[in-house]
Each structure stands twice: as C-alpha cells, then as structure tokens.
C-alpha cells in the first residue's frame, strides 16, 4: 500500500466574498503544498488582495472554506482568529516599528525564552545578510534592507504559510530582481508555503512555481509560468503577459484570410470572427528581400508588406511599428539590438505561425 500524501499546507475551497451585491471573490479554489510559491496574479480590483485578507482572517468570507494542514480554520462553523492561524503576513509598506531596532523588530512576534529568541534572530539576520545592522533602526536602512528585515520578521515565528501582498512594489526597480531572488531562496530554505499577490507578470514569472491568473473575482487560468505564457486561455491572458499583435478575420472553410495569406483555423464554425494573436518578438522582418539575412523558413508563411510608422530603441531591443498595406493594421515587431529604420520605409514581414494563438473575437461565440 502506498503512503498517504499529506494534506496541502493551505487549501481554499469555493471561496466567495460579496460587497454591495458584487462578487469580489467568486468561487475561488486552490491548494498550496509546503515549499511551494503560488502567485495570485491579476489587474487591480480583480479580487487578489481580498482573497489574501480572507485567508489571513482579517476579513470573513460569505462562502467557502479555508484549511491549513487539513484542519478547517474558517468555514460555516469555525473561524480561527488571525493570530492563531500560524500564517505570516508581509505587505508592500514593510510596516516595521520605527522605535525598535532591527533585532527587536524581528523578535517582536517570537515566544519562548530570551536565548531561543536571540538565536532565531541571529539565524535570520545571517540569512538576510544584515547581522551588522542588528542594532540599527529602520530609518537608517535602505529600502532593500528594510524589505529583508520585514521578510525576516515574517519568517521568525516559523509560520506554516506566508502571505505576501505586493511586497516588492515599494523598491527601486534596479533592486527588485536581486531582492526577489534572495527572498525566493530564503523562502525555499524555510520550506514555507507562500501565496504572493502581485499585478506584475514579470514578478510572478520570476517567483512562482504556480500562477493563478485572476480576473473579475475568478481564477481564469492556472499552471506553471511557462504554460500560462505559451498556452494562454484567451486573448486577455496572452496580452497580460506581454504586448501582442492582433490580426482580425472571419472563418470560412476552416481558413481565415490575413495579410500573411490564408491561416488555418480549424474548430471554428464558418462566419466566426476570430483574433489571431502574435507577440512582437515572433513577428519577423524579411531581411532577405533587402539582400540580407537567411531565407524564410516554412513556418514563417507568406511575407506581407508594411510601412514603418516609427521605431524606438528600448535598451536590449528595438520596437518597430508598421502599418500594413493589406488593411492598415498597425503591427509591432521586436528586433534584437539597435534597428531604427526611418518612418515611411517599406519592409516585408513574416509571422511565426507556430507561435500564434487563435481565439474567438471578443463578443463572438466561443
């Protein structure tokens, strides 16, 4: 007989919360095992932070159940107070106590004798590389250092679950990636189940083992970052992770006419209006027609002519906008390094058909 798997560290079942007749959280369910980082990702107002508040216990759901290690902490008959849930909280403003030293801030939520507290504080200060700031006060630290103190304080009581609400949004953009990586390494080392709320796709992609994409109070797609990026459930999901180009058309005999020739669109009834979505990095300039570069490969399809509207250098790449001859559609191509053709320059473009997504147009029948 195989060993029985332990229950998820955190499990949410059919969670619902209504404000003024509007379902802000609508039938939300998910589970997080120990050691996993799950990101609730979505635009402002989609219900992410409300979900976090319900799990923390600072708000109460109208429907659904919340379990920690298989035991109910909030359902129709049980509502465990926030301080008894063994759940750590970390918010974007860090909320450090200005009158306490770094060590005192970290020790604030600890119980037990003084020696055990001191040992745990020292352990965490070493992990976040702030041992020399033990007796400093928060106002004397940089934003990144304050963030690391807040993380150490949240982890000090060894919570089974850590809830993080936009924890990096107050940091200088240049620091964020390093701080995220350091935070992720420490969370994995502590084997904490983490629910991170963010509206930034880059943050979710960098941090998460699993992403829950939320919209209008519902989870519309879930999975590993790679799967959400490469197999979006709809046009809005694709556009949330990056800029997209959209070719519009109507299906006839399982084909849709585009500037790049007939496009196979099986599975859609004749007359269905569809969106063919492609990211700028998969729109290719046919340099071969200008006497440069390799010949197009079969998956690139039929070249189409466009005229440069404008071009901008973005640091690692250039973004070139074209107005297509076929129907006046504006398409954007991402080109590595510096490529700044003058406005009015005609060029030929191709698309990676194997990198396109086909969805019913908004408002059309699925």
Automatic annotation (TrEMBL):
Gene3D superfamilies: P-loop containing nucleotide triphosphate hydrolases. Residues 10-241 form the ABC transporter domain. Coiled coil: none annotated. GO terms for molecular function: ATP binding. Keywords: ATP-binding, Cell membrane, Ion transport, Iron, Iron transport, Membrane, Nucleotide-binding, Transport. Pfam families: ABC_tran, TOBE_2. InterPro entries: AAA+_ATPase, ABC_SmlMolc_Importer, ABC_transporter-like_ATP-bd, ABC_transporter-like_CS, ABC_transpr_FbpC, Mo/tungstate-bd_C_term_dom, P-loop_NTPase, Transp-assoc_OB_typ2. PANTHER family: SPERMIDINE/PUTRESCINE IMPORT ATP-BINDING PROTEIN POTA (PTHR42781), SPERMIDINE_PUTRESCINE IMPORT ATP-BINDING PROTEIN POTA (PTHR42781:SF4). This is Fe3+/spermidine/putrescine ABC transporter ATP-binding protein.
């Amino acid at each position: 007989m195989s060993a029985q798997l332990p229950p998820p560290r955190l499990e949410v079942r059919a969670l619902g919360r209504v404000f003024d007749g509007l379902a802000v959280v609508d039938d939300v369910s998910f589970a997080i095992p120990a050691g996993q980082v799950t990101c609730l990702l979505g635009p402002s107002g989609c219900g992410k932070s409300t979900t976090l508040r319900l799990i923390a216990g600072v708000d109460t759901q109208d429907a659904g159940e919340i379990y920690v290690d298989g035991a109910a902490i909030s359902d129709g008959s049980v509502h465990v107070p926030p301080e008894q849930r063994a759940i750590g909280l970390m918010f974007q403003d860090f909320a450090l106590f200005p009158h306490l030293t770094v060590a005192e801030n970290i020790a604030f939520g600890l119980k037990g004798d003084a020696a055990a507290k001191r040992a745990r504080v020292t352990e965490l200060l070493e992990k976040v590389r702030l041992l020399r700031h033990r007796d400093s006060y928060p106002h004397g630290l940089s934003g990144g250092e304050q963030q690391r103190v807040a993380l150490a304080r949240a982890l000090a009581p060894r919570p089974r679950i850590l809830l993080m609400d936009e924890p990096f949004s107050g940091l200088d953009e240049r620091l964020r990636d390093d701080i995220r990586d350091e935070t992720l390494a420490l969370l994995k080392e502590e084997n904490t189940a983490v629910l991170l709320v963010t509206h930034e796709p880059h943050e979710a992609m960098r941090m998460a083992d699993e992403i829950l994409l939320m919209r209008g109070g519902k989870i519309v797609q879930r999975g590993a970052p790679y799967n959400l990026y490469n197999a979006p459930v709809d046009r809005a999901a694709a556009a949330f992770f990056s800029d997209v180009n959209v070719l519009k058309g109507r299906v006839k005999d399982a084909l849709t006419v585009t500037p790049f020739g007939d496009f196979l669109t099986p599975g859609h009834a004749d007359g269905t209006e569809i969106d063919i979505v492609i990211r700028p990095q998969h729109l290719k300039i046919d340099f071969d027609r200008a006497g440069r570069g390799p010949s197009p490969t079969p998956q690139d399809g039929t070249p189409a002519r466009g005229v440069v509207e404008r071009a901008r250098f973005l640091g690692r790449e250039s973004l070139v906008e074209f107005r297509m001859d076929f129907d006046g559609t504006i398409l954007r191509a991402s080109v590595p390094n510096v490529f700044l053709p003058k406005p009015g320059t005609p060029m030929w473009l191709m698309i990676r058909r194997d990198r396109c997504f086909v969805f019913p147009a908004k408002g059309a029948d699925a």
